[in-house]
Design goal:
- The complex is a heterodimer of chains A (120) and B (357).
- Chain A has 120 residues and is α+β, with helices and mostly antiparallel strands.
- Chain A has four helices and nine strands; from the N terminus they run βββαβββββααβα.
- The mean pLDDT of chain A is 96.
- Chain B has helices at residues 15-20, 40-49, 69-76, 124-133, 159-163, 211-220, 228-237, 270-273, and strands at 24-28, 31-36, 52-55, 60-65, 88-95, 101-111, 114-119, 141-144, 149-155, 179-184, 187-192, 201-207, 224-225, 279-286, 296-299, 302-312, 319-326, 334-339, 342-349.
- The chains are: A alpha+beta (120), B alpha+beta (357).
Chain lengths: 120, 357
């Protein structure tokens, strides 16, 4: 399982980059299995940390994605509408979900080490 | 607040084998079962293009013997068991007194006055009590053999060819629904040419103590282990209803497309089953958004039913669903399904969604 050290992690398996980019972890995509559909928030939406803002659907199940930071959504990954499998193949790169401006991270985000320990 | 005591999950004889194969285990109908090994998609594709093997040992087996065995089964099931010759099997239903469905089952006639019935795992206790309660007036003996048998399902276009070198009988001579004894890898087994994926295949009844070795040998000769996830996408593509989703005790069984399972004969609950069902089962195809059990189905903006099973079809490449809708609203071409508060277009398609070539 990959857990890049430069990212922060929510217990609910989202990652947050300093620039406000959000995705789901390698562990999460592996647990979900083949991703077939991603529902993303609208650009301009103001989200609060911990709020359900997106849905990632695999063959078997639909999973809520929670914002790991508060802020305004300024970009979403349009590639995912045609290629949702990018979440499986590159959860930290091509499979990113959305970006918030001036992110205010949730208080209880984990370091890479803490997240890996919790999901080892 | 106290939590209710948890009943420990039951395990099949293949539990250790599943862990060895890297399975992700989940609770299912009181059992701890593999939902996937390599991944639902890969397992699904293996069954559609080659052959997979499923552990279905959690299902129950009851033996029905005695001079009145046939007469008893005629009373408690809707299909006509008198049509079954020894060595043949038949899909069938167990209705209750009011026409609800206790379970959907398979009935095999072993010899003239001996039958084996296979029931759904989560219904074993309920079915057993129901059948016992119906035995008055019949010279019949019921035996619960659920712990005696391991049950493996090999499914896929290559299933016959891959089994043939290792089995003592000519499989090409065994038609659909044949039920027969054989030696497989040297073990005494019974096979039924049936399954739940829409592909050709066999269900293999093994001694529970030998199931793990038979499973290992099947993997060694190339069968792909497949879990509950693939089982569900495969059966849904094939339009097979599943107890607890398309069937329920309080649901009129003729809502499903399987009306042929009810034959013109006297049986339990007959006067209720003969009434027209208030709802109908339909197939829906969507463009992009997967729909799940319980999502509302709309016609012209009005809620007319709900999704009973839904997934993204790996074979067809788009979402599919079965839904129960009001009878008077069951013949439209276009519906909508409400997903998280938003209506998405769905068109009605004939079941099954997938039929093998």
């Amino acid at each position: 399982m990959q857990t890049p050290t430069e990212l922060k992690y929510a217990k609910t398996h989202e990652w947050l980059k300093d620039d406000g980019t959000v995705g789901i972890t390698d562990f999460a995509q592996d647990q979900l299995g083949d991703v077939v559909y991603v529902e993303l928030p609208e650009v301009g939406r103001v989200v609060s940390a911990g709020e359900s803002v997106a849905v990632v659907e695999s063959v078997k199940t639909a999973s809520d994605i929670y914002a790991p930071a508060s802020g305004t959504v300024v970009a979403v990954n349009d590639q995912l509408s045609g290629s949702p499998e990018l979440v499986n193949s590159g959860p930290y790169e091509g499979g990113w979900l959305f970006r918030v401006e001036n992110p205010e991270p949730a208080d209880d985000l984990l370091s890479a080490e803490e997240y890996a320990d919790a999901n080892g | 607040m106290t939590t209710p005591p948890q009943t420990p999950l039951k395990r099949t004889p293949l539990h250790a084998a599943h862990l060895r194969a890297g399975a992700r285990m989940v609770p299912f109908g009181g059992w701890e079962m593999p939902v996937q090994y390599a991944g639902v998609r890969a397992e699904h594709d293996a069954v559609r293009t080659r052959a997979g093997v499923f552990d279905v040992s959690h299902m129950g087996e009851f033996r029905v013997t005695g001079p009145d065995a046939e007469r008893f089964l005629q009373h408690v099931t809707t299909n006509d068991v008198t049509k079954l010759r020894p060595g043949r099997g038949q899909y069938n239903w167990l209705p209750n007194e009011t026409g609800g469905l206790v379970d959907d089952i398979y009935v095999y006639r072993v010899v003239q006055s001996e039958f084996l019935i296979v029931v759904n795992a989560s219904n074993i206790g309920k079915d057993w009590a129901h059948l016992q309660a119906q035995t008055a007036g019949y010279d019949v003996t019921l035996t619960d053999e659920s712990d005696r048998w391991g049950l493996l399902a090999v499914q896929g276009p290559q299933a016959e060819a891959m089994l043939q070198p290792h089995i003592s009988v000519d499989l090409t001579a065994k038609k659909k629904n044949a039920y027969f004894p054989a030696k497989l890898f040297g073990f005494e087994v019974w096979l039924a040419r049936t399954g739940y994926t829409g592909e050709d295949g066999f269900e293999i009844f093994t001694d529970a103590g030998e199931a793990e070795t038979v499973w290992d040998r099947l993997l060694a000769v190339g069968f792909t282990p497949a879990g509950l996830g693939a089982r569900d996408t495969l059966r849904l593509e094939a339009g097979f209803p599943l107890y607890g989703h398309e069937f329920a005790e309080n649901l009129h069984p003729l809502a499903s497309t399987y009306t042929w399972v009810v034959k013109d004969k006297a049986h339990l609950g007959r006067e209720h089953i003969s009434l027209a069902p208030p709802v109908r089962l339909i197939g829906l195809a969507l463009e992009r958004v997967p729909v799940r059990e319980g999502y509302p189905v709309l016609l012209n903006g009005e809620r007319v039913g709900h999704v009973t099973s839904g997934t993204s079809s790996p074979t067809l490449g788009h979402p599919i669903a079965m839904a129960l809708v009001r009878g008077d609203a069951s013949t439209a071409d276009a519906y909508e399904v409400e997903v998280r508060g938003k209506a998405h277009p769905a068109r009605r398609v004939e079941l099954p969604f997938y039929r093998r070539a």
